[in-house]
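Running this now, will post back.
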Amino acid sequence: MRSGPVLVLSFALSLSACAQSCGQERAAKGEGEAADAAQAPTPASAPAPVAAPALAFARDDQAYRDALADLDWEIAAAEARAEANPRTWLVLEKVAGLHLQRARLSGSYDDYAAAEDALTRAFERAAEGSGPLLTRAALNFSLHRLDRVEADLDIVAKRPVLGDPTRARIESMRGAVDFERGDYEAALAHFEAVEGLDETGTVLAQRAQWYWRHGDIEQAEALYRRAGSHYPEDALEPRAWTELQLGIIDLERGRYEDAFEHCRAGAGILGGWWLLEEHIAEIAGLLGHREQSLALYAEIIARTGKGEFMDARAALLREDPSEAAQAEADALIERAGQTFAAELERYPEASYGHALGHYLEFGPADRALELAEANHRLRPGVPAKIALAEARLASEDPEGARAVIDEALATGWSSAALSWTAAEVYAALEDEARAAKLRAQAKAINPHIGEP
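Update: finished.
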């Protein structure tokens, strides 16, 4: 089972706009009651007790539903103000920002479309050279339209007077664009330029990701924790997202129990958020709790309709040789392909990476290669290079795979996925000495990589 596109998404989500005790008590109480029940004698006539979920975490989704409902109320109120004040674009910028916040929670392209509609209406009201340029840049970054981001940043940067918060947003977004394009030194320079201007949780998280991807885990974790401390108690989504990033750091290092603890903490903050629960589903599968993983993926598919989770459930089902499991897996793979085709039609740049994972796992190889090349042209950072190397290998082009994987290895990026993919490339080229060294590097980061 492949994983990865959501990691890219998580970095975008941190830019699109700048554990609850009762849930934890309920979870602890439930665990205690389950333990007591297990120790109590069972009458001979009583049915066998139902096993508790292998991984216990807050399942109450009230906080998530409340967060969406609050945003819906704010959006409706802002739209009413915009209609009552037809000569200003500022309220429509607020509407767009609220839709972007909702998109971070829902993951729905419908929310991005609503944000784009609000921005279109705002620019219709704005004078030439004005309007919600930075908000449009944030939207375009989230949708991976990197060329459009820079155009708006350049307009704002040329203004004669800029406050420190505005200068900080410009530097932050320029760094994010450079990061996606694989110019990591330039990205870090932009991130560090923000220091002293307007240090926010978002900026600290950007720097954390930079250090994480360059192998300095201690610094990355410290920066993520600092980022989390910047958010107020009621900022549930960024606080939960910060826990998720710490969890993904552990997940990529094969520390599955530690990764789950971070995800559980995130669920205690924002229970019901699919982005947390899909990682818990992945961890459950990796820890051998297959039935729980399958059940969680089924729930997440029903709530989000996302193809990547159809693929994840299908991959697990394919491990079951029964006819029913194989039939369901085939149906999910077909449905995922249809979902990705629709998303590629609607928002191609935002969909390349997600759809690519589907075709790399399930084929056909020529479609995977087509998407990998397009994704790499758009944002040629290391994740895109890894995917392109995989696609070229699947298309029986190991020399082409070596060319792009060597570029990735030269960046200073440190991950088990990079070293493992590079090992596969060099093994295909029959350079077993280099492949063995790269496998050892990958295993030093994540001892479980390559396991079935």
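Residues 305-346 form one domain. More later if anyone needs it.
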